[in-house]
Amino acid sequence: MLYEKQPKPLDEQIAQLKSRGLAITDEHYARHYLKNVSYYRLAGYWWPMQEDKINHVFKPHSCFEDVIALYSFDSELRLLVFNAIERIEIGLRTRLINHLAHEFDPWWFENPLIFKSSSAFHANLNVIDRDLKKTKEVFIGEHYRKYHSDSRRPPAWKTLEVVSFGLLSKLYGNLGSDVASKDIIAAELNTVNHTYLRTWLQAISQIRNICAHHGRLWNKNLPGRPKLLPKPPASWVRNVPPVSEHHMLYVHLCCMKYLLDAICPGHRFSRKLTALLAKYPTVDLAALGFPGGWQTEPLWIY
C-alpha cells in the first residue's frame, strides 16, 4: 500500500479540522499556529479529543484554543523538567568524576577491569572518542596541544564534561558491583544502592532526550521504568504509583524531585510545578499519572 496523501494549504487544514468537529472561532489565530507549529505536531494534542480515531471525528465541545493551551502547557512543562534534569546531570557528573578518580585514578573510564560488560565498555569508549573529537570546548583542544605525547584521553574531569547524560548513566550502570563508588554515589543521592539508581538514571536520560528534541511529555507512553525503593530514607510519596503506571510522567517527576532534594536543597521545583499546573487548570492531570491529593504527599510539600 502506497502513501497517497498530499500536502494541504493552511486554509484547507483549517477547513478539514472544522469539518471533523473541532471548533475554530478565530481562523487567523489557527492559521498562525498551523504556520509556526505544524498540523502533525499539534495532532498529538488533539488526538485524545477525537471520539472516532479512524475518521478523526472530534468529541462535542472540542475547540482549537484548548489544543493550543495543552501545547503551551507541554512546552512549559518540558522546559521545567529539562532544567531539573540539568541539575541532576551535573550532580551525577561531578560525583562520577570525584569518587572514581579517587578510588582508582583520573582515567578510570579507560579501565576495562572495573566494568561488567566488555562490549558496553568499548561501545561507551567509542562514544567518548566521538564526543571528544566533535567538541568545540577550548579546554579539550588545549589539553591535546599541551599533552600531545600522552596517549591517554584527557582525565575524567575534562573528558566527562563533554559527554551526554545518557553516556554518564551508561558508565554508571556498567560499573562492577564491587566498585565502592557506585554505592557511595547512590547513598549520597538517597537511593540506597546502585540497583535502584541505575534504573532512575536510565529513565531520566530518556526523558532528557525527549525534552532536548522538543518531544511531547503530556499523555506520553514513556520508555523508562524506574525501580522504586520499598523504604526510601528521605521524604517520598505514601500513594506509590503501581507498576502499571510507571510509563506515565508522574512517577518520573517523583524520582526527579527526590534526587533534587539530595543534590540541591532549596530548589523550587515543587513550587514551579504547582504554579504551572495552576496556570493551566483545564489540563487533564490523569493523562500524566497524577493521583488526587498529590500536593499533600511528603515528597511534594515545600
From TrEMBL:
GO terms for biological process: proteolysis. The keyword Protease applies. Pfam families: Abi_2 (PF07751). One of its GO terms (molecular function) is peptidase activity. Keywords: Hydrolase, Protease. This is CAAX protease. It comes from Chlorobium limicola.
